[in-house]
Design brief:
With about 200 residues, the chain is mainly beta. About 5% of the residues lie in helices and about 40% in strands. The protein has 1 helix and 10 strands. The strands form 2 sheets. The chain has a 6-stranded mixed β-sheet, with helices on one face. It is globular, with a radius of gyration of 29 Å. It starts with 6 loop residues before the first strand and ends in a 49-residue tail after the last strand.
């Protein structure tokens, strides 16, 4: 599900649907699109979210577009998945990796609706928090194999419409190249008047 190209690929597109602010918390519903071929067999996926040290993931729900729910199993703090992500993607001193194992079935496809509830959430009303999301197959590592990643933007109350396109979306409208200006045609010189036929020259 993560392809065969070694390294990370920005092909996990995360688009906000709704966001709510329970006291000291944030709950965000998003549309997820893993832009990769659908696997042919069931597997477990390693999943990591880079959040603040003081934060806890109270809820992470993944619902395939085809229906049902993908089971997600929280892992202990600083488990081998988190250590692998630390080495590969790093983290700031006030951050940590919240890690999970997810039970994937081919019938799920590659598009999901997610619900993430995080606590505490103390971002300024005009600010936002960036959560890096990365996943790979259970029998692979982030450091030595391939993985997909994306960014989830957790907005402050006044930034609830913020979006950050990443992967697969093409260039934004403002980045389109302008059509080259047409060259002005050179002005034609007026033609010289032709002498009338049979007109004789005057003698001096």
């Amino acid at each position: 599900m993560t392809g065969n190209i070694r390294g990370g690929q920005a092909k996990l597109v995360i688009k906000k649907k709704t966001v709510n602010f329970p006291p000291q918390k944030i709950e965000k519903e998003s549309e997820l699109d893993a832009q990769t071929p659908t696997p042919s067999h069931a597997m477990q996926l390693k999943l990591g979210l880079r959040i603040k040290q003081a934060q806890q993931v109270e809820l992470l729900e993944l619902r395939p577009a085809a229906g049902g729910v993908m089971a997600v199993h929280p892992q202990p703090p600083n488990d081998p998945i988190a250590q692998d992500l630390d080495v590969t993607l790093g983290r700031a001193a006030d951050e940590k990796w919240a890690t999970f194992l997810a039970d994937y079935e081919p019938s799920f496809g590659t598009k999901f609706t997610s619900t993430l509830r995080l606590s505490p959430f103390a971002v300024h009303d005009n600010g936002f928090q960036v959560v890096t999301v990365a996943f790979t197959h259970e029998n692979r590592t982030f450091a030595d194999d391939n993985y997909l990643f994306g960014l989830s933007i957790l907005p402050g109350r006044h930034n609830s419409a913020i979006q950050l396109p990443l992967g697969g979306g093409g260039a934004p409208q403002s980045a389109k190249k302008r059509a080259p200006a047409k060259k002005a045609k050179a002005a034609r010189r007026p033609k010289k008047a032709k002498k009338a036929k049979g007109q004789k020259r005057r003698k001096r």
